[in-house]
Amino acid sequence: MSLISICKQLEDPRIDRNKEHSLEVIVYIALCAVICGSESWNEIERFGICKFAFFKRRFPDLEKIPSHDTFNRFFSLLKPGYFELVFRDWVSELCGKYEGVVAIDGKMIRGASKCSKDHPLGKKGFKLHMVSAWAVSSGISMGQVKVDDKSNEITAIPSLIKSLDLQDCIVSIDAIACQTDIAEVIIENNADYILALKANQKNRLIDVVRWLDEMDGIDVDLPAYRSHYGKYITEEVSHGRIETRECLVFSPGKIMEAMLKKKFEGVRSIVRITTERLEVATKKLSVEKRYYITSLGLEPKEISEAIRSHWHIENRLHWQLDVSFREDAGRKVGNAAQNFSLINKMALYIIKQDETKGSVAAKRKNAGWNDEYLCKLLNKINI
After folding, report:
1. Nearest one of 375, 371, 347 to 361, comparing CA atoms
2. Res. 166: pLDDT tops 60
3. Which CA distances in Å does 239 have to 102, 278, 308, 316?
4. Is the pLDDT assigned to residue 142 strictly greater than 90?
């Protein structure tokens, strides 16, 4: 089923007498415009006017392109929760049941504003904070939730996890989510977790550091240690430096729950990642150690690769939204900001399906210049 067909399932928020353009026309034109580099409602309208013949072929009954006010009004009225469900149905159609690493992280959209009676044009200083789930191997956002104004990621993350099908996935989250209730929600959803520990979680970190650091200099491959300890080491040479990563796992099994001061549902192992970076030219050596708890067992290679892949959500989603899509520079208000964030994620995934050489920014320009290339992108995911 195409995205346009799925969009027809949406409840149109507009009054019937004000509907000059169908819901699917508005969504389709907005998505195409964003793929091609549009960042504002005015730019989307202008793009549509310039490409009227292109859209007329897709929608034969189209008489004129919606105005920028129409785009703004429609996406401001559209409930983000409904649009999110359409997005997830679309992802499910494209990817099927996903099994792999799911990285969860938050992002602030700094240009967004919040309207109210006292601030009809948006409240100064308001920040829209979204938490997203990123399917690492598929390279697609599985879903997003808005962090409530008077809350934080800790309360938003369980809501996101409960709304997704994460069975048989490995969920990786930064240190803010190292909470007992979040671990419990992940296990209840038949998934595994890898949760980071940092210095502000002093009591938990002290024990984990002690248990792992006391193994320095000991050969964990000896029979006495092999049943509870595992190690995986990789080495890379690039950009004038040698980087060695060691993943040390201590896995006593289910008794791990009793060993931690606070019970984490399903925890089986603790992990230390040691990264050594040697600058070849200067011989300068830097060492960094990071610690984690996980529901996975003695699987150092799988754990190491899952931890490293967590940064895909930063490099391949958030960075692209910030740099290629200039998301923080937008001045969207209310629901429109949240809905536009979802359109950006759709557009990014569509562009990423073209594996030919070139940056995301260059491919967006090419799509805007070349109707044939834009059709190629759209046809890849049956829009």
Report:
1. 347
2. yes
3. 29, 11, 18, 20
4. yes
